[in-house]
Please model this.
Amino acid sequence: MPLNNDILGIYKAVYIYTSGVALSYIVDSVTRNVSMEASPKVMMTGSPKTRIMDLGGVTETISIQAPILIGGGASADGRALLAYKVNEIIDTSTQRSLPILKSASISINEGGGNVSLTLESDGDLQSPSFYVENSNNPHPSLDPSVIGTQTGVGQSGATRVARFYDFRAKIGQRQYFIQEATVDVNVDTVKNYFINPYEFNNQAGGYKLTGLGGTTLTSVLYPGGTGISWKYGTPFPHIGVNGITVSGKGKGAVVVGSNYASETLAGVTTQQAGKTILASSDDVSFNLEVAGYSSSGFGWSSLIPGIGLSKAIINATNFTVNTGILSVEFDFTCYVI
Model:
């Protein structure tokens, strides 16, 4: 049997549109699911044979598992993709492009860190928001011969996966003996469908009955942009964003009787009349960061660049006592700053 590598994913490069440009990212796996509303309609047609269909809107979701990397590959890992997609949502001066972020989860523990993302698109495979290409070369950021103080700032460089010693954390008053943490980003999106406009054939935009082209209406939020929001005469939805929320979970070891890792430290943030109480009175009541290089040099940076998460409350705790390590689990919710 001849050797044929055409069908193997390892020889493929994954591209995802971010800010209007298709960029290649380093991922573990990608799954795209496209579905259309479809149901047979039973009507009085003179026969029990169903020959009328009700065909509606299209839904597309893209699920991505990606690593958190240290070195050159950090410029194209799961955290980098999340940063782009978050920025598209919160910065109205940035050009948006499908797919849009629906949810993301960053997990850090002893084994390191990883990112799970769910992106949402309109299902138009003629204008895909994600695609795969054959490749013979490693990702351009993964050149181990380039080693220097700027490694990881959009350049090549020796790369490894991030491990527990690459992260630091503060959750409320607790910053010692934290074993694991998960941050969840959720975006409230809404799909809308519109009746075709009266001037259906707009030659300037190339609109045809086949659904080619999109709106050329000037965007109010994106200066100079023409929000290509939906295609006339097709079942593809217009996707909007209502809001973004950040919450998560953590787990830490307990030292009974201590003032730095007790079972009550970083407890539920109970409130008082007339006051809003945060998880700690410090300037920073919550932080999860990763070490690496940035444009300002080496240092610590937020796990989710572009979002300020320094203020949080702890809304649940669970203290467990057994023969192993005493531990407390806690849930937190962040103000998005």
Summary: The chain has three domains: 9-37+54-144+157-161, 166-189+242-334, 194-236. Residues 78-90 form the longest helix (13 residues).
